[in-house]
Specification:
Elements (H helix, E strand, L loop, with lengths): L2 H7 L10 H4 L22 H4 L4 H11 L6 H13 L1 H4 L25 E3 L5 H9 L6 E5 L4 E5 L14 E5 H8 L7 E2 L6 E2 L4 E2 L5 E2 L3 H6 L12 E5 L8 E6 L3 E7 L10 H6 L1 E2 L5 E2 L2 H8 L4 E8 L5 E11 L7 E2 L4 E3 L2 E3 L2 H6 L19 H5 L11 E2 L18 E2 L9 E8 L3
Antiparallel strand pairs: 1-3, 2-3, 2-4, 5-6, 7-8, 9-10, 10-11, 11-13, 11-21, 12-13, 14-15, 14-21, 15-16, 15-17, 17-18, 19-20
Helix pairs in contact: 7-8
Length: about 425
């Protein structure tokens, strides 16, 4: 590398993006608490995908290998490294890729001291090396799930690395382990991270796909006990994270009704983009529902609270929005009411039906606009025995008016609270 190329590499180190936690408030919680104060706005897509770019990785590599930038530039680099350690260590420092994964490194004295085939991640491998007295260097392959430990550093002329092997000294492993990204905190053990706001991973390096993944990550244990929280989520096909409400054993809420103050008689565009406040009453938006339901397999749960204090729920199997033009719904062959199978009409009314609103009539009713008659958008057939997005009735009694929130299977009971939940299908 010539001086001109070296100077160009040395000028692009400082990260330009901020994490979600840096962009908004963060709740400082204990490891068993939920973060309930999310950031106020989602980050640009590059925040999660490009916190560390090729120039940054190459720069660190050059410095550690003994190359030198101009003095002032090097000082700026090290200042940036100190201030932005979280972003720098979001991805592994040295990852060499090739067509096959082989590792022919030989330490100074020619022998490895241990081989671990149970490591689940680079963090596990690094933790083992830090806790091993004789370990001075490690090599980890994610593809093979193998971690190798050495008690001397490698000589550069004795190392031939191919594939996905990652090489670290004990010092680098210790630094990597104790850095928690995106506002995460180091736990009392000094090596693991507590994540907030919906971030997951060993070092809080990415946003969860949905509430269920947040629960299973171990960072939000109270989600599994019925607690609720507003967190960030990002299915694989979604370009930017969105705020979601997690509730009821880590279900992802897509609609919530608790007060008549939020009007659900909205336009097609509003139903497509979403409206309301996630922490209160809201509609997630058809576009986001499409991305969520095409990333993982869900059942759709209708959850009702009645005036007399009872709770009713209905589970529609295999819920998915199949396309993103009219947002046609697809359901399985049956549904449950309190664990009892119900066939026929509830599934048939929704499955295969496009979404309709008063200003975009896609239902099958003759001479009737179901969205206008029911006062809210839905997957109508020839209208429906269910109105989830009409006017919420606080008396708890359904008067028989179609525009009131009701479900005929509840009789004359009108729910005083309801929500729709995406429940992950268990393998």
């Amino acid at each position: 590398m010539n001086a001109e190329e070296e100077e160009e590499v040395c000028t692009n180190l400082t990260p330009r993006n901020k994490s979600l936690a840096e962009r908004g408030d963060r709740t400082h919680a204990d490891s068993d608490q939920l973060a309930t104060k999310p950031a106020t706005s989602p980050p640009p897509f590059e925040t999660r995908k490009r916190n560390i770019n090729t120039c940054t990785v190459l720069q660190i590599f050059l410095i550690m290998k003994g190359y030198h930038c101009h003095l002032l530039l090097c000082l700026a680099i090290w200042m940036s490294l100190y201030q932005a350690t979280q972003s720098v260590f979001q991805e592994s420092i040295f990852i060499v890729t090739a067509s096959n994964a082989t590792h022919n490194c030989r330490p100074v004295d020619g022998a490895e001291i241990a081989r671990d085939v149970t490591s689940r991640s680079l963090l596990d491998c690094g933790r083992s090396c830090v806790n091993m007295e004789k370990c001075e260097m490690l090599a980890y392959s994610e593809q093979q799930g193998v971690c190798l430990f050495y008690h001397h550093h490698w000589k550069s002329d004795l190392c031939d690395v191919k594939g996905d092997w990652m090489m670290m000294t004990k010092g680098e492993a210790n630094l990597t382990m104790t850095v928690c990204l995106n506002g995460g905190d180091v736990k009392e053990d000094g090596v693991s991270c507590q994540c907030y706001h919906g971030y997951v991973g060993d070092r809080c390096q990415r946003v969860m796909e949905d509430c269920y993944e947040g629960k299973m990550s171990g960072h939000y244990p109270r989600l599994g006990s019925g607690d609720q929280a507003v967190l960030w989520a990002q299915p694989r096909s979604m370009e930017q994270p969105v705020q979601v409400r997690c509730q009821g054993n880590a279900n992802t809420i897509i609609q919530r009704r608790s007060s008549p103050s939020v009007d659900f008689n909205r336009t097609w565009q509003e139903y497509e983009e979403g409206f309301g406040k996630v922490g209160q009453d809201f509609w997630m938006g058809l576009r986001n529902m499409y991305l969520f339901t095409n990333a993982r397999q869900y059942d759709l749960v209708f959850y009702f609270n009645l005036k007399n204090g009872t709770t009713r729920y209905f589970i529609f199997k295999d819920f998915r929005i199949t396309e993103n033009t009219t947002y046609t719904a697809s359901l399985g062959a049956y549904a449950y009411i309190q664990n009892q199978i119900i066939n026929g009409r509830p599934v048939e009314e929704m499955s295969g039906k496009p979404f309709s609103t008063y200003d975009n009539d896609n239902d099958n009713a003759v001479n009737v606009n179901c969205g206008e008659r029911f006062g809210g958008g839905w997957w109508f057939n020839a209208c429906s025995e269910l109105n989830a997005n009409g006017r919420l009735v606080t008396t708890g009694v359904w008067s028989g008016e179609k525009e009131e929130v009701h479900y005929q299977r509840l009789g004359n009971n009108a729910p005083i609270y309801m929500d729709l939940r995406l429940k992950i299908q268990q393998p």
